[in-house]
Amino acid sequence: MNSKLAIHGGKPVREHYLPYGRQTINEDDIQAVVNVLNSEYLTTGPIVNKFENEIAKYVGAKYAVAFSNGTAALHGACFAAGISEGDEVITSPITFAASANCILYQGGTPIFADIDPETYNIDPDSIKEKVTDRTKAIIPVHFTGQPAAMDEILKIAREHELIVIEDAAHALGAVYKDKKIGPIGDMTMFSFHPVKHITTGEGGIITTDNEEYYRKLLQFRTHGITRDPMILRDNHQGPWYYEMHFLGFNYRITDIQAALGLSQLSKLDNFIKQRKKYAGMYNEQLKELSAVILPKQMGEAESSWHLFVIRLKLPLLRCNRKELFKAIQAENIGINVHYIPVYTLPYYQKLGYNAGICPKAEKLYEEIITLPLFPGMTEPDVMDVIRSVKKVINFYSL
Ligand SMILES: *Cc1c(COP(=O)(O)O)cnc(C)c1O
Description:
Layout: H1 27-37, H2 46-59, E1 63-67, H3 70-80, E2 88-91, H4 98-105, E3 109-112, H5 124-130, E4 135-139, H6 150-160, E5 163-167, E6 175-176, E7 179-180, E8 187-191, E9 204-208, H7 211-221, E10 225-226, E11 243-244, H8 255-265, H9 268-286, E12 292-293, E13 301-302, E14 308-312, H10 321-330, H11 346-351, H12 359-367, E15 368-371, H13 379-396
Parallel strand pairs: 2-3, 2-4, 4-5, 5-8
Antiparallel strand pairs: 1-9, 6-7, 6-13, 8-9, 10-11, 12-14, 14-15
Helix pairs in contact: 1-8, 2-8, 3-4, 3-7, 9-13
Pyridoxal-5'-phosphate binds at residues 69-71, 95-96, 98-99, 141, 167, 169-170, 191, 193, 204.
């Protein structure tokens, strides 16, 4: 092995940069999009509905409402849950800002519960400590694709009459106690951003078994407007007639996007199989590194492996995370960090969230690195990542 790191002028393990995640698009995906472009409807056509039905069927939920992106879908779920000013909503700090931003959009107050240091998911015991008589909902995040402790979370929710909105942006196809993520909480959000399991360019969806939430989500997605004769207050004006009942948004997804999503969905199981295989290779090949903690999997859940996050035992290394990160990057490996604890972001600091609210999450943040993982990688790509991580960790090991 080349003992001189690329960061010190050595030859990098890879000649070309490998991203941490990216979409897998084939000729049939392209054809599906082209077919819509040649059809009558580019938006508000039949393909959106078909995509929603197929996603609902795949996860085993009664209803699905697709949105222009996952963040808009979370906003819709917070609206349907009735979150408004004065309401507190508990979520994880180890997530993308959108999981908490959606609470703010509705005027609610995000409350951050700490994580379980083994799974990095929200810790039910910490949720219990943060519940007050103002708490309205919980937004657990299935971080990296590993389902959060849903039985415990639902138990707390039932005791305190809280609504559970799952941020399952990482967890399409993940399984919790023999059930796919989707119909477990009150509403579940999936994202179709290009780094996620399947893509529509931008896109997101809420799945639910609750008809009332379903109807609210549909209306919220299109300005709060409805033509549904069941809901209209004045049903006699004529065929052109519609009503706007509340201030919604234009959060619609296009038929162009939905066609891409349908085509991608037919490959989802293979995508997940590929992700599992590569995660298995990482687990097998990196376990010899004593300075690395590999992602722990709980027996009750089956991850869909959106991200592969390694945790460093910094006392065993003569460098910090930043140096290590730069050294692996210099080998042309596109690594990343998921996530900066949300409440430490400058905007949240300005809102008055202090550092130290969730010490386990803050400690985790200092020690993690995300390795590349996506179905379009090849086995040689995975081996390049493994070689680079070993090269750099061994170089810096005490
Ligand atoms: C991607 C993501 C979102 C937001 O989805 P978009 O489709 O990008 O709006 C929300 N939460 C988490 C955890 C995500 O990874």
